[in-house]
Write a structure and sequence with these properties.
Oligomer: heterodimer
CATH superfamily of the largest domain in chain B: Winged helix-like DNA-binding domain superfamily/Winged helix DNA-binding domain
Number of strands of chain A: 4
Distance between the termini of chain B: 21 Å
Shape of chain B: globular
CATH class of one domain in chain A: Alpha Beta
Radius of gyration of chain B: 18 Å
Radius of gyration of chain A: 40 Å
Strand content of chain A: 5-15%
Distance between the termini of chain A: 63 Å
Strand content of chain B: under 5%
Order of helices and strands of chain A: HHHHEHEEHE
Helix content of chain B: 55-70%
Helix content of chain A: 40-55%
Number of domains of chain B: 2
CATH topology of one domain in chain A: Alpha-Beta Plaits
Largest sheet of chain B: none
Largest interface: A-B, 39 and 47 residues
Number of helices of chain B: 10
Structural class of chain A: alpha+beta
Largest sheet of chain A: 4 strands, antiparallel
CATH class of the largest domain in chain B: Mainly Alpha
Structural class of chain B: mainly alpha
CATH superfamily of one domain in chain A: ACT domain
CATH architecture of the largest domain in chain B: Orthogonal Bundle
């Protein structure tokens, strides 16, 4: 059922025609429409004949019991209150499923349970690797500097890497060395 | 307008049709075809396809007569079949076109002394949207109750009343635009 159209706040009959006038107009204009030509009924008879022949020549592929079941189902769903009943039962079943289905109570990342990744507690850097850098080259660089990627990539391709604990002078030297690396386009210490 | 359920003059003919009585079917056709044709004409406004829709409508009536459950009057049921077929023909988009989007009513000079009133009425109706023509036909020509119309169009009764109000207003505007005033109408 569609929702009701907006009802005018004040129905002013002066803006409209009275019922008898409208009836008169419709009746008069209908007189110009002639009853269907006899040829139309001839076409209907032919169409009915063809459909009757089709029914007798092509027996239904379904057995009478299946036809009876289909007929019952058709009648069942043609009643709006019963159809809504089925919808209500489905909704209840869905709610019960959602309420009682085993769902993990917390959100976890894929790496959350891993114990093999141990980030050293040294200084951290934000790094952007060169777009042409290969994974093997990056892995080799990280291994030689004893660094581990602990986050990233971010929106602009920024990774966070952490080194082993080291003196601040060593950190500055290491940073300067990495800045010269062709694999790195950006590196800044994270605080 | 809202009348109690009354005798259905076509029910016995449909029941006989459901038993395969071709004469009853022919009689049902004779007694109803003009009303359904008028309804279709007002909805579709295309004479070329009305006969095709009529043929298909009565074929469907013949095939489905045993499925009639009596939830509405026979004519309402038949018009429902015709309506579904007509809507397929004209496309729902066109039917549901809003009155505001409808082309502006064009002024047509009519000479009432020599002119044909029926033609003026037909032209005025043609200027309405299909939705408004349909509701006027169902309410004032087919003489269906609001409840029947609501059932047929699948809309609330309040919408039927509102739509009738706007349809009558549009018809009055159309007639006035064509130079016809209230005194000329009856």
């Amino acid at each position: 059922m569609q929702k009701p159209e907006e009802v005018p706040e004040a129905v002013d009959n002066r803006d409209s025609l009275d019922t008898e006038t409208v009836r008169h107009i419709l009746k008069e204009s209908a007189e110009d429409i002639r009853p269907a030509h006899p040829a139309v009924f001839a076409r209907i008879e032919k169409s009915v004949e063809e459909s009757s022949l089709a029914d007798t020549e092509q027996p239904s592929p379904h057995s009478p019991s299946v036809q009876a079941l289909r007929s019952k189902l058709r009648d069942y769903f043609s009643r709006p209150h019963l159809a809504w009943g089925v919808v209500a039962v489905q909704a209840v079943a869905l709610c019960l499923f959602v309420a009682y289905a085993p769902v993990r109570s917390s959100y976890q990342t894929l790496s959350a349970g891993r114990t093999d990744i141990q980030a050293p507690a040294g200084p951290a850097f934000y790094v952007i690797f060169h777009e042409n850098a290969r994974i093997r080259e990056i892995e080799r660089l990280l291994t030689t500097t004893e660094a581990v990627i602990i986050n990233g990539p971010g929106k602009r391709g920024i990774y966070t890497i952490r080194f082993s604990p080291m003196p601040s002078t060593t950190v500055k030297e290491l940073c300067a060395t990495l800045k010269k690396s062709s694999l790195i386009t950006f590196i800044e210490q994270a605080y | 307008m809202n009348r109690p359920a009354s005798f259905d003059p076509f029910l016995s003919l449909l029941e006989l049709t459901a038993q395969g009585d071709r004469d009853a079917f022919a009689c049902l056709y004779e007694q109803t075809n003009h009303r359904i044709k008028v309804y279709l004409y007002r909805l579709v406004q295309n004479k070329d396809c009305i006969d095709d829709i009529l043929v298909e409508t009565y074929t469907q009536v013949w095939k489905n007569s045993d499925r009639f459950k009596g939830r509405s009057k026979v004519l309402t049921w038949m018009i429902g079949i015709a309506r579904n077929l007509a809507l397929k023909e004209i496309g729902k988009k066109k039917y549901h076109e809003d009155i505001a989007d409808h082309p502006e009513i064009k002024a047509v000079a009519i000479d009432f002394e020599a002119g044909n009133r029926k033609e003026v009425f037909s032209r005025a109706l043609a200027l309405l949207t299909p939705k408004h023509r349909e509701i006027l036909d169902l309410a004032f020509y087919q003489d269906f109750a609001y409840r029947e119309i609501a059932h047929l169009l699948n809309i609330p009764e309040s919408t039927v009343k509102t739509r009738i109000f706007y349809a009558k207003a549009s018809l009055k505007t159309a007639l006035e635009t064509m130079g016809m005033n209230s005194d000329d109408l009856l």
